[in-house]
Amino acid sequence: MSSAVLPTTLVSSFECQQGAVRAVRFNVDGKYCLSCGSDKSVKLWNPYKGTLLKSYTGSGSDVLDACSSPDNSIIASGGYDRVLTLHEVETGKISRRVRGHGAPINAVLFNEEGIAVLSASNDGTVRIFDIRQRSMDPVQILDEATDGILSLDVSDHEIATGSADGSVRVYDIRAGRVFIDYMGDSVTSVKLTNDRQCVVTSTMGGHIRMIEKINGKLLTEYTGHLHKEFKIDCAILSSDCEIVSGSEDGLIYIYDIVESNVLCRLGEDLKPRPRHVATLSSHPSRPCIAAATQSKMFIWDSLSADDL
Question: Whereabouts are the WD repeats (predicted)?
């Protein structure tokens, strides 16, 4: 059942001043977040105060995704220039630029140990790089998808991918096997549940589905949000009891993970209402959501701004 505590308080909203914000991502402990812009930059924020801490530049085009390493020392990013870029957080310097993808990079993630970084691309591959090595040749390439890979998630021994060909793949690195399911529409967001037993997928057409990983059984389906045109993020709140999704009607939908009903819609009172909410990120340990639309970021929390 859903927890009673939901992130329904808008504690901050601010202009990122980097063109269209392509993605927003919390860091590993949720104290900071990253925004990726059409102005070719990545910005590091204290999102609760709307304070810009540092800007990272050097990408050749729009940055579509970014993430910080578990020790918060490196920021990885990728986008339309097809290059995986690694920045040093403290100095802002580019430590490595890795080429190899034949199309834009849609998603980047570090593994839980922070020794490998993964990049997923419209060329249908995921490339895995060991950042401890001087050579930045990929240690592994996952190339089974027949269309662009739009989304990516990782656990300690699994890699989940969602593709424009409608497929969801969960690679079990330890066992050397892969689970494959077909959703029928492009999979724009994929998340492993905290217990690692299920995978949550968001697809074009406005469907979020929870699939039992080991047998592909559909457990629950969530509908109500609008998802026809854009790549829309979904996420699982830290309670593991709610699923949150952006929507093309400018709202954020929070669903009960068991009952599948809509618990609340965030943003109904905003004036003017955003045209769409395509990107969002869930705080790793408490009820809080960072979301962005056009050039602006919004932070929704269960606490008031004075309590943060």
Answer: 14-55, 98-139
What is the SS3 string spanning the chain?
CCCCCCCCEEEEEEECCCCCEEEEEECCCCCCEEEEECCCCEEEEECCCCEEEEEECCCCCCEEEEEECCCCCEEEEEECCCCEEEEECCCCCEEEEECCCCCCEEEEEECCCCCEEEEEECCCCEEEEECCCCCCCCCEEECCCCCCEEEEEECCCEEEEEECCCEEEEEECCCCEEEEEECCCCEEEEEECCCCCEEEEEECCCEEEEEECCCCCEEEEECCCCCCCCCCCEEECCCCCEEEECECCCCEEEEECCCCCEEEEECCCCCCCCCCECEEEECCCCCEEEEEECCEEEEEECCCHHHC
Domain boundaries, the chain: 19-236
Mean pLDDT score of the chain: 94
The reported pTM is 0.94
Cis upstream peptide for 7 (omega within 30°): no
Token digits of residue 23? 């993605």
The hierarchical CATH code for the domain 19-236 is: 2.130.10.10
